[in-house]
Amino acid sequence: MIRLSNATLSQIQTAATPRYDRAALKPGIVHFGIGNFHRAHQAVYLDRLFNLGRDHDFALVGAGVMAGDQRMREALAGQDYLTTVVEQSAARSEARITGGMIDFLPVGDATAIIARLTDPAIRIVSLTVTEGGYFIDSSGVFDPTHPEIRHDGKHPLAPRTVFGLIAAALSARRASDTPPFTVMCCDNIPHNGSVTRSAVVGVANLYDPDLANWIASEVAFPNAMVDRITPATGERERRLCADDFGIEDAWPVFCEDFTQWVLEDNFPSGRPALEEVGVEFVADVTPYELMKIRILNGGHAVIAYPAGLLGITYVHDAMGHPLIAGFLEKVTRDEIIPTVPPVPDTSLNEYAELIVTRCANPKIGDTVRRLCLDGSNRQPKFIVPTLADRIAAGQPITGLALESALWCRYCAGTTDAGETIAPNDPNWEKLQPVAQEAQSNPNAWLGQADIYGALGNAPILRERFAAALESLKSDGVETTLQRYIAGEL
Protein backbone atom coordinates (compact mmCIF):
# COMPACT_ATOMS: atom_id res chain seq x y z
CA MET A 1 0.00 0.00 0.00
CA ILE A 2 1.37 3.42 -0.99
CA ARG A 3 0.13 6.47 0.86
CA LEU A 4 -0.39 9.28 -1.66
CA SER A 5 2.06 12.19 -1.41
CA ASN A 6 4.72 14.00 -3.42
CA ALA A 7 7.34 11.75 -1.85
CA THR A 8 5.63 8.55 -3.02
CA LEU A 9 4.61 9.56 -6.56
CA SER A 10 7.59 7.83 -8.12
CA GLN A 11 6.61 4.55 -6.43
CA ILE A 12 3.13 4.42 -7.98
CA GLN A 13 2.97 2.04 -10.95
CA THR A 14 -0.81 1.43 -11.07
CA ALA A 15 -1.88 4.95 -12.04
CA ALA A 16 -0.77 7.67 -14.43
CA THR A 17 1.14 10.36 -12.53
CA PRO A 18 1.94 13.99 -13.40
CA ARG A 19 4.63 14.36 -16.06
CA TYR A 20 5.30 17.97 -15.07
CA ASP A 21 7.30 19.49 -12.23
CA ARG A 22 4.72 20.41 -9.61
CA ALA A 23 7.24 22.63 -7.82
CA ALA A 24 7.39 24.84 -10.91
CA LEU A 25 3.64 25.43 -11.08
CA LYS A 26 2.38 28.94 -10.38
CA PRO A 27 -1.15 29.86 -9.24
CA GLY A 28 -3.53 31.34 -11.79
CA ILE A 29 -6.97 30.05 -10.72
CA VAL A 30 -8.72 30.13 -7.36
CA HIS A 31 -11.54 27.61 -7.18
CA PHE A 32 -14.34 27.71 -4.61
CA GLY A 33 -15.90 24.36 -3.76
CA ILE A 34 -13.27 21.65 -4.03
CA GLY A 35 -15.68 18.74 -4.26
CA ASN A 36 -15.68 15.53 -6.23
CA PHE A 37 -17.10 17.04 -9.39
CA HIS A 38 -14.45 19.74 -9.62
CA ARG A 39 -11.67 17.21 -9.02
CA ALA A 40 -13.08 14.86 -11.68
CA HIS A 41 -13.71 17.64 -14.20
CA GLN A 42 -11.89 20.99 -14.24
CA ALA A 43 -8.89 19.65 -12.34
CA VAL A 44 -8.54 16.72 -14.75
CA TYR A 45 -8.62 18.98 -17.82
CA LEU A 46 -5.91 21.18 -16.28
CA ASP A 47 -3.82 18.15 -15.36
CA ARG A 48 -3.99 16.95 -18.97
CA LEU A 49 -2.97 20.39 -20.21
CA PHE A 50 -0.05 20.63 -17.78
CA ASN A 51 1.09 17.21 -19.00
CA LEU A 52 1.41 18.75 -22.47
CA GLY A 53 3.83 21.30 -21.04
CA ARG A 54 1.31 24.13 -21.37
CA ASP A 55 0.17 26.98 -19.12
CA HIS A 56 1.90 26.03 -15.89
CA ASP A 57 1.02 29.49 -14.55
CA PHE A 58 -2.65 28.48 -14.25
CA ALA A 59 -2.32 26.09 -11.31
CA LEU A 60 -5.25 25.74 -8.91
CA VAL A 61 -5.64 27.16 -5.43
CA GLY A 62 -8.58 25.83 -3.43
CA ALA A 63 -10.97 27.98 -1.38
CA GLY A 64 -14.18 27.48 0.52
CA VAL A 65 -16.56 28.76 3.16
CA MET A 66 -18.47 25.64 4.26
CA ALA A 67 -17.76 23.00 6.91
CA GLY A 68 -17.30 20.37 4.21
CA ASP A 69 -14.59 22.52 2.64
CA GLN A 70 -12.56 22.28 5.84
CA ARG A 71 -12.71 18.48 5.82
CA MET A 72 -11.60 18.44 2.19
CA ARG A 73 -8.77 20.88 2.90
CA GLU A 74 -7.45 18.69 5.69
CA ALA A 75 -7.65 15.55 3.57
CA LEU A 76 -5.89 17.10 0.58
CA ALA A 77 -3.25 18.95 2.59
CA GLY A 78 -2.26 15.61 4.11
CA GLN A 79 -1.37 14.31 0.64
CA ASP A 80 0.17 17.46 -0.89
CA TYR A 81 -3.09 18.35 -2.70
CA LEU A 82 -2.87 15.29 -4.95
CA THR A 83 -6.00 13.37 -5.94
CA THR A 84 -6.55 9.88 -7.31
CA VAL A 85 -9.18 10.02 -10.06
CA VAL A 86 -10.52 6.64 -11.18
CA GLU A 87 -12.27 6.78 -14.56
CA GLN A 88 -14.60 3.84 -15.13
CA SER A 89 -16.42 2.39 -18.11
CA ALA A 90 -18.37 -0.85 -17.91
CA ALA A 91 -15.30 -2.68 -19.24
CA ARG A 92 -12.34 -1.06 -17.50
CA SER A 93 -11.09 1.18 -14.70
CA GLU A 94 -8.08 3.49 -15.03
CA ALA A 95 -6.52 5.65 -12.33
CA ARG A 96 -4.61 8.89 -12.68
CA ILE A 97 -3.07 11.15 -10.06
CA THR A 98 -3.82 14.82 -10.70
CA GLY A 99 -1.37 17.40 -9.41
CA GLY A 100 -2.67 20.74 -10.66
CA MET A 101 -3.72 22.00 -7.21
CA ILE A 102 -0.88 23.55 -5.23
CA ASP A 103 -2.59 25.21 -2.25
CA PHE A 104 -5.86 25.45 -0.32
CA LEU A 105 -6.63 28.70 1.48
CA PRO A 106 -7.83 28.69 5.11
CA VAL A 107 -11.54 27.95 4.92
CA GLY A 108 -13.75 30.94 5.68
CA ASP A 109 -10.75 33.24 6.30
CA ALA A 110 -12.00 36.32 4.47
CA THR A 111 -8.74 38.25 4.85
CA ALA A 112 -6.59 35.47 3.42
CA ILE A 113 -9.01 34.68 0.60
CA ILE A 114 -9.48 38.30 -0.47
CA ALA A 115 -5.70 38.83 -0.40
CA ARG A 116 -5.13 35.89 -2.74
CA LEU A 117 -7.97 36.95 -5.05
CA THR A 118 -6.42 40.42 -5.27
CA ASP A 119 -3.09 38.99 -6.49
CA PRO A 120 -2.67 39.98 -10.18
CA ALA A 121 -1.47 36.43 -10.93
CA ILE A 122 -5.02 35.19 -10.31
CA ARG A 123 -6.80 35.64 -13.63
CA ILE A 124 -9.72 33.23 -13.14
CA VAL A 125 -11.95 32.57 -10.14
CA SER A 126 -14.04 29.45 -10.66
CA LEU A 127 -16.68 27.82 -8.52
CA THR A 128 -18.80 24.73 -7.91
CA VAL A 129 -21.03 25.54 -4.93
CA THR A 130 -24.04 23.32 -5.89
CA GLU A 131 -27.24 24.27 -7.70
CA GLY A 132 -28.81 25.59 -4.51
CA GLY A 133 -25.95 27.89 -3.55
CA TYR A 134 -26.77 30.96 -5.63
CA PHE A 135 -29.48 32.63 -3.54
CA ILE A 136 -32.05 32.67 -6.33
CA ASP A 137 -35.79 32.10 -6.23
CA SER A 138 -37.90 29.83 -8.44
CA SER A 139 -37.88 32.39 -11.26
CA GLY A 140 -34.09 32.67 -11.19
CA VAL A 141 -33.99 36.12 -9.56
CA PHE A 142 -31.30 36.86 -6.99
CA ASP A 143 -32.62 37.23 -3.43
CA PRO A 144 -30.85 40.11 -1.63
CA THR A 145 -32.89 39.55 1.54
CA HIS A 146 -31.27 36.24 2.45
CA PRO A 147 -29.59 36.55 5.88
CA GLU A 148 -26.16 35.55 4.55
CA ILE A 149 -26.38 38.10 1.76
CA ARG A 150 -27.59 40.81 4.14
CA HIS A 151 -24.61 40.05 6.36
CA ASP A 152 -22.20 40.53 3.45
CA GLY A 153 -23.90 43.79 2.54
CA LYS A 154 -23.30 45.10 6.06
CA HIS A 155 -19.77 43.65 6.39
CA PRO A 156 -18.21 43.95 2.92
CA LEU A 157 -14.66 43.34 4.20
CA ALA A 158 -15.68 40.29 6.24
CA PRO A 159 -18.09 38.45 3.92
CA ARG A 160 -19.28 34.91 4.59
CA THR A 161 -20.44 33.95 1.09
CA VAL A 162 -18.44 33.16 -2.03
CA PHE A 163 -20.14 36.05 -3.81
CA GLY A 164 -19.31 38.53 -1.06
CA LEU A 165 -15.67 37.44 -1.20
CA ILE A 166 -15.55 37.82 -4.97
CA ALA A 167 -17.16 41.28 -4.79
CA ALA A 168 -14.69 42.41 -2.09
CA ALA A 169 -11.72 41.19 -4.12
CA LEU A 170 -12.97 42.87 -7.28
CA SER A 171 -13.38 46.10 -5.31
CA ALA A 172 -9.76 45.85 -4.14
CA ARG A 173 -8.50 45.13 -7.66
CA ARG A 174 -10.46 48.09 -9.01
CA ALA A 175 -8.96 50.37 -6.35
CA SER A 176 -5.42 49.24 -7.20
CA ASP A 177 -5.92 49.41 -10.98
CA THR A 178 -5.46 45.64 -11.27
CA PRO A 179 -7.48 44.15 -14.15
CA PRO A 180 -10.43 42.08 -12.93
CA PHE A 181 -10.30 38.31 -13.00
CA THR A 182 -12.83 36.28 -14.98
CA VAL A 183 -15.48 34.54 -12.88
CA MET A 184 -16.07 31.05 -14.30
CA CYS A 185 -19.03 29.12 -12.90
CA CYS A 186 -18.82 25.33 -13.25
CA ASP A 187 -22.12 24.53 -11.55
CA ASN A 188 -24.95 22.73 -13.24
CA ILE A 189 -27.50 25.54 -13.59
CA PRO A 190 -28.99 27.25 -16.64
CA HIS A 191 -27.03 30.33 -17.74
CA ASN A 192 -24.62 29.72 -14.88
CA GLY A 193 -22.38 32.67 -15.71
CA SER A 194 -25.30 35.07 -15.79
CA VAL A 195 -26.63 33.67 -12.51
CA THR A 196 -23.22 34.13 -10.90
CA ARG A 197 -23.02 37.71 -12.18
CA SER A 198 -26.42 38.44 -10.60
CA ALA A 199 -25.21 37.14 -7.25
CA VAL A 200 -21.92 39.07 -7.24
CA VAL A 201 -23.52 42.28 -8.52
CA GLY A 202 -26.41 41.83 -6.08
CA VAL A 203 -24.09 41.66 -3.08
CA ALA A 204 -22.00 44.62 -4.24
CA ASN A 205 -25.11 46.70 -4.84
CA LEU A 206 -26.03 46.47 -1.16
CA TYR A 207 -23.05 48.61 -0.13
CA ASP A 208 -21.57 50.19 -3.29
CA PRO A 209 -23.83 50.67 -6.33
CA ASP A 210 -20.92 52.12 -8.34
CA LEU A 211 -18.93 48.94 -7.73
CA ALA A 212 -21.95 46.87 -8.72
CA ASN A 213 -22.26 48.75 -12.01
CA TRP A 214 -18.53 48.36 -12.68
CA ILE A 215 -18.69 44.60 -12.06
CA ALA A 216 -21.72 44.28 -14.32
CA SER A 217 -20.00 46.07 -17.19
CA GLU A 218 -16.31 45.17 -16.78
CA VAL A 219 -16.10 41.63 -15.36
CA ALA A 220 -16.51 38.56 -17.57
CA PHE A 221 -18.84 35.77 -16.42
CA PRO A 222 -18.80 33.18 -19.23
CA ASN A 223 -21.59 30.61 -19.31
CA ALA A 224 -20.64 26.94 -19.42
CA MET A 225 -22.07 23.45 -19.79
CA VAL A 226 -20.29 20.86 -17.65
CA ASP A 227 -20.94 17.12 -17.53
CA ARG A 228 -19.48 14.09 -15.80
CA ILE A 229 -21.27 11.62 -13.54
CA THR A 230 -19.31 11.71 -10.29
CA PRO A 231 -20.71 9.93 -7.21
CA ALA A 232 -19.83 10.83 -3.65
CA THR A 233 -16.82 9.19 -2.03
CA GLY A 234 -17.39 6.71 0.77
CA GLU A 235 -15.63 3.75 2.30
CA ARG A 236 -16.46 1.70 -0.81
CA GLU A 237 -14.42 4.04 -3.00
CA ARG A 238 -11.53 4.27 -0.54
CA ARG A 239 -11.42 0.49 -0.34
CA LEU A 240 -11.51 0.10 -4.13
CA CYS A 241 -8.71 2.63 -4.51
CA ALA A 242 -6.62 0.64 -2.04
CA ASP A 243 -7.53 -2.85 -3.27
CA ASP A 244 -7.44 -2.21 -7.03
CA PHE A 245 -4.58 0.29 -7.26
CA GLY A 246 -2.67 -0.05 -4.00
CA ILE A 247 -3.08 3.67 -3.25
CA GLU A 248 -4.09 5.05 0.13
CA ASP A 249 -5.98 8.24 -0.71
CA ALA A 250 -8.01 10.03 1.97
CA TRP A 251 -10.57 11.22 -0.60
CA PRO A 252 -10.29 9.55 -4.02
CA VAL A 253 -12.72 10.38 -6.82
CA PHE A 254 -14.50 7.74 -8.90
CA CYS A 255 -16.26 8.89 -12.07
CA GLU A 256 -17.43 7.71 -15.47
CA ASP A 257 -15.06 7.83 -18.43
CA PHE A 258 -17.30 10.33 -20.26
CA THR A 259 -16.64 14.04 -19.74
CA GLN A 260 -17.77 17.20 -21.52
CA TRP A 261 -17.13 20.92 -21.07
CA VAL A 262 -18.54 23.57 -23.39
CA LEU A 263 -17.48 27.10 -22.50
CA GLU A 264 -18.07 30.60 -23.84
CA ASP A 265 -14.75 32.10 -24.86
CA ASN A 266 -14.84 35.28 -22.78
CA PHE A 267 -11.62 35.59 -20.74
CA PRO A 268 -10.25 39.15 -21.04
CA SER A 269 -7.39 38.49 -18.61
CA GLY A 270 -6.28 35.30 -20.34
CA ARG A 271 -7.00 31.60 -19.98
CA PRO A 272 -5.30 28.23 -20.31
CA ALA A 273 -5.43 26.56 -23.74
CA LEU A 274 -8.06 24.05 -22.66
CA GLU A 275 -9.18 23.49 -26.24
CA GLU A 276 -6.05 21.33 -26.58
CA VAL A 277 -7.48 18.82 -24.09
CA GLY A 278 -11.07 18.61 -25.27
CA VAL A 279 -12.88 21.72 -24.02
CA GLU A 280 -15.15 23.16 -26.70
CA PHE A 281 -15.14 26.96 -26.81
CA VAL A 282 -18.24 28.53 -28.37
CA ALA A 283 -19.86 31.93 -28.75
CA ASP A 284 -23.13 30.82 -27.11
CA VAL A 285 -23.47 27.85 -24.79
CA THR A 286 -27.27 28.04 -24.52
CA PRO A 287 -28.16 25.12 -26.85
CA TYR A 288 -25.66 22.84 -25.16
CA GLU A 289 -26.79 23.65 -21.64
CA LEU A 290 -30.46 23.24 -22.52
CA MET A 291 -29.68 19.84 -24.01
CA LYS A 292 -27.77 18.71 -20.96
CA ILE A 293 -30.02 20.17 -18.27
CA ARG A 294 -33.26 18.95 -19.81
CA ILE A 295 -32.21 15.56 -21.20
CA LEU A 296 -29.54 14.43 -18.72
CA ASN A 297 -30.52 16.20 -15.50
CA GLY A 298 -34.23 16.01 -16.24
CA GLY A 299 -33.69 12.35 -17.08
CA HIS A 300 -31.94 11.80 -13.76
CA ALA A 301 -35.06 13.06 -11.99
CA VAL A 302 -37.23 10.74 -14.08
CA ILE A 303 -35.07 7.79 -12.99
CA ALA A 304 -34.62 8.88 -9.39
CA TYR A 305 -38.04 9.03 -7.78
CA PRO A 306 -39.66 5.81 -9.03
CA ALA A 307 -36.41 4.03 -8.14
CA GLY A 308 -36.36 5.61 -4.70
CA LEU A 309 -39.97 4.63 -4.07
CA LEU A 310 -39.21 1.06 -5.16
CA GLY A 311 -36.26 0.82 -2.75
CA ILE A 312 -33.58 0.51 -5.45
CA THR A 313 -30.11 1.51 -4.23
CA TYR A 314 -28.01 1.96 -7.37
CA VAL A 315 -28.73 3.86 -10.59
CA HIS A 316 -27.51 1.03 -12.81
CA ASP A 317 -30.00 -1.31 -11.10
CA ALA A 318 -32.74 1.25 -11.71
CA MET A 319 -31.83 1.25 -15.39
CA GLY A 320 -32.18 -2.54 -15.36
CA HIS A 321 -35.82 -2.21 -14.23
CA PRO A 322 -37.87 -2.35 -17.46
CA LEU A 323 -40.57 0.02 -16.21
CA ILE A 324 -38.12 2.71 -15.10
CA ALA A 325 -36.16 2.36 -18.34
CA GLY A 326 -39.41 2.53 -20.31
CA PHE A 327 -40.57 5.57 -18.36
CA LEU A 328 -37.29 7.37 -19.09
CA GLU A 329 -37.38 6.48 -22.79
CA LYS A 330 -40.97 7.65 -23.29
CA VAL A 331 -40.74 10.89 -21.31
CA THR A 332 -37.47 11.81 -22.99
CA ARG A 333 -38.71 11.04 -26.51
CA ASP A 334 -42.23 12.45 -26.22
CA GLU A 335 -41.90 15.43 -23.87
CA ILE A 336 -38.30 16.50 -23.22
CA ILE A 337 -36.46 16.31 -26.56
CA PRO A 338 -39.17 18.31 -28.40
CA THR A 339 -38.41 21.30 -26.12
CA VAL A 340 -34.66 21.30 -26.89
CA PRO A 341 -33.53 23.45 -29.85
CA PRO A 342 -31.01 22.09 -32.37
CA VAL A 343 -27.46 21.74 -31.07
CA PRO A 344 -24.52 22.11 -33.51
CA ASP A 345 -23.17 18.78 -34.77
CA THR A 346 -25.29 16.83 -32.28
CA SER A 347 -28.12 14.32 -32.61
CA LEU A 348 -30.44 14.74 -29.63
CA ASN A 349 -31.67 11.17 -29.96
CA GLU A 350 -28.10 9.83 -29.95
CA TYR A 351 -27.33 12.05 -26.95
CA ALA A 352 -30.29 10.54 -25.10
CA GLU A 353 -29.15 7.03 -25.99
CA LEU A 354 -25.67 7.83 -24.66
CA ILE A 355 -27.19 8.92 -21.37
CA VAL A 356 -28.95 5.55 -21.03
CA THR A 357 -25.59 3.81 -21.53
CA ARG A 358 -23.88 6.09 -19.02
CA CYS A 359 -26.53 5.62 -16.35
CA ALA A 360 -26.44 1.84 -16.83
CA ASN A 361 -22.68 1.69 -16.15
CA PRO A 362 -22.37 -0.69 -13.16
CA LYS A 363 -18.82 0.40 -12.31
CA ILE A 364 -19.85 3.87 -11.19
CA GLY A 365 -21.89 2.81 -8.19
CA ASP A 366 -23.92 6.00 -8.43
CA THR A 367 -26.78 5.93 -5.94
CA VAL A 368 -30.45 6.61 -6.45
CA ARG A 369 -30.41 8.61 -3.24
CA ARG A 370 -27.85 11.01 -4.74
CA LEU A 371 -30.12 11.57 -7.75
CA CYS A 372 -33.07 12.15 -5.40
CA LEU A 373 -31.14 14.71 -3.34
CA ASP A 374 -32.16 18.37 -3.19
CA GLY A 375 -35.22 18.23 -5.43
CA SER A 376 -36.42 21.59 -4.12
CA ASN A 377 -33.45 23.24 -5.83
CA ARG A 378 -33.17 20.91 -8.83
CA GLN A 379 -36.80 20.60 -9.94
CA PRO A 380 -37.20 24.36 -10.67
CA LYS A 381 -34.15 24.15 -12.94
CA PHE A 382 -34.43 20.72 -14.56
CA ILE A 383 -38.17 19.91 -14.80
CA VAL A 384 -40.36 22.97 -14.27
CA PRO A 385 -39.02 24.97 -17.28
CA THR A 386 -39.74 22.02 -19.58
CA LEU A 387 -43.25 21.76 -18.14
CA ALA A 388 -43.73 25.50 -18.70
CA ASP A 389 -42.62 25.31 -22.33
CA ARG A 390 -44.94 22.41 -23.11
CA ILE A 391 -47.91 23.99 -21.38
CA ALA A 392 -47.31 27.27 -23.23
CA ALA A 393 -47.25 25.34 -26.51
CA GLY A 394 -50.41 23.39 -25.66
CA GLN A 395 -48.53 20.08 -25.69
CA PRO A 396 -49.17 17.03 -23.45
CA ILE A 397 -47.38 16.85 -20.09
CA THR A 398 -48.55 13.46 -18.78
CA GLY A 399 -45.03 12.08 -18.21
CA LEU A 400 -43.58 15.24 -16.66
CA ALA A 401 -46.61 15.60 -14.41
CA LEU A 402 -46.07 12.00 -13.33
CA GLU A 403 -42.43 12.78 -12.53
CA SER A 404 -43.63 15.65 -10.31
CA ALA A 405 -46.11 13.35 -8.61
CA LEU A 406 -43.39 10.76 -8.00
CA TRP A 407 -41.23 13.44 -6.39
CA CYS A 408 -44.15 14.47 -4.21
CA ARG A 409 -44.73 10.85 -3.15
CA TYR A 410 -41.02 10.48 -2.36
CA CYS A 411 -41.07 13.58 -0.17
CA ALA A 412 -44.04 12.18 1.74
CA GLY A 413 -41.42 9.95 3.30
CA THR A 414 -42.30 6.29 2.68
CA THR A 415 -41.56 3.85 -0.13
CA ASP A 416 -44.16 1.68 -1.83
CA ALA A 417 -43.15 -1.06 0.63
CA GLY A 418 -43.84 1.23 3.59
CA GLU A 419 -40.20 1.81 4.51
CA THR A 420 -39.19 5.22 5.83
CA ILE A 421 -37.26 7.51 3.48
CA ALA A 422 -34.62 9.44 5.40
CA PRO A 423 -34.63 13.22 4.89
CA ASN A 424 -32.97 13.98 1.55
CA ASP A 425 -33.41 17.69 0.92
CA PRO A 426 -32.26 20.86 2.73
CA ASN A 427 -35.95 21.79 2.86
CA TRP A 428 -37.24 18.34 3.91
CA GLU A 429 -38.97 19.61 7.04
CA LYS A 430 -40.98 22.00 4.88
CA LEU A 431 -41.56 19.61 1.98
CA GLN A 432 -42.71 16.54 3.90
CA PRO A 433 -45.88 17.95 5.51
CA VAL A 434 -46.91 19.53 2.20
CA ALA A 435 -46.31 16.21 0.40
CA GLN A 436 -48.40 14.40 2.98
CA GLU A 437 -51.22 16.95 2.67
CA ALA A 438 -51.09 16.58 -1.11
CA GLN A 439 -52.20 12.95 -0.86
CA SER A 440 -55.70 14.31 -0.25
CA ASN A 441 -55.22 17.82 -1.67
CA PRO A 442 -52.88 17.67 -4.71
CA ASN A 443 -52.97 21.42 -5.22
CA ALA A 444 -51.11 21.91 -1.94
CA TRP A 445 -47.95 20.57 -3.61
CA LEU A 446 -48.29 22.65 -6.76
CA GLY A 447 -49.00 25.70 -4.61
CA GLN A 448 -45.36 25.93 -3.54
CA ALA A 449 -44.58 29.18 -5.32
CA ASP A 450 -40.84 28.95 -4.66
CA ILE A 451 -40.77 25.79 -6.79
CA TYR A 452 -43.57 26.04 -9.35
CA GLY A 453 -44.22 29.79 -9.42
CA ALA A 454 -47.36 30.72 -11.35
CA LEU A 455 -47.17 27.41 -13.24
CA GLY A 456 -48.68 25.67 -10.22
CA ASN A 457 -52.01 27.28 -11.09
CA ALA A 458 -52.10 25.92 -14.66
CA PRO A 459 -55.29 23.84 -15.00
CA ILE A 460 -53.68 21.15 -17.17
CA LEU A 461 -50.84 20.64 -14.69
CA ARG A 462 -53.26 20.41 -11.78
CA GLU A 463 -55.37 17.89 -13.67
CA ARG A 464 -52.52 15.64 -14.81
CA PHE A 465 -50.64 15.88 -11.50
CA ALA A 466 -53.74 14.94 -9.50
CA ALA A 467 -54.45 11.97 -11.77
CA ALA A 468 -50.86 10.72 -11.45
CA LEU A 469 -50.81 11.17 -7.69
CA GLU A 470 -54.09 9.31 -7.29
CA SER A 471 -52.79 6.43 -9.40
CA LEU A 472 -49.62 6.22 -7.31
CA LYS A 473 -51.65 6.22 -4.12
CA SER A 474 -54.21 3.63 -5.21
CA ASP A 475 -52.18 1.37 -7.54
CA GLY A 476 -48.52 1.94 -6.66
CA VAL A 477 -45.47 2.91 -8.67
CA GLU A 478 -45.12 -0.10 -10.97
CA THR A 479 -48.76 -0.21 -12.08
CA THR A 480 -48.74 3.55 -12.65
CA LEU A 481 -45.61 3.31 -14.79
CA GLN A 482 -47.17 0.45 -16.77
CA ARG A 483 -50.25 2.56 -17.43
CA TYR A 484 -48.17 5.56 -18.51
CA ILE A 485 -45.99 3.52 -20.87
CA ALA A 486 -49.13 1.94 -22.37
CA GLY A 487 -50.68 5.39 -22.89
CA GLU A 488 -53.46 4.70 -20.39
CA LEU A 489 -52.69 7.26 -17.67
UniProtKB/TrEMBL annotation:
BP GO terms, sorted: mannitol metabolic process
Highest taxon in the source lineage: Bacteria
Residues of the signal peptide: none
Record domain Mannitol dehydrogenase C-terminal: where: 284-472
Keywords: NAD, Oxidoreductase
Record domain Mannitol dehydrogenase N-terminal: where: 28-275
Entries under InterPro entries matching the protein: 6-PGluconate_DH-like_C_sf, 6PGD_dom2, Mannitol_DH, Mannitol_DH/Oxidoreductase, Mannitol_DH_C, Mannitol_DH_CS, Mannitol_DH_N, NAD(P)-bd_dom_sf
Gene3D superfamilies: N-(1-d-carboxylethyl)-l-norvaline Dehydrogenase, domain 2, NAD(P)-binding Rossmann-like Domain
Entry's Gene Ontology molecular function annotations: oxidoreductase activity, acting on the CH-OH group of donors, NAD or NADP as acceptor
Annotated PROSITE patterns: MANNITOL_DHGENASE
Keyword Protein transport: no
Entry protein name: Mannitol dehydrogenase
Native species: Acuticoccus sediminis
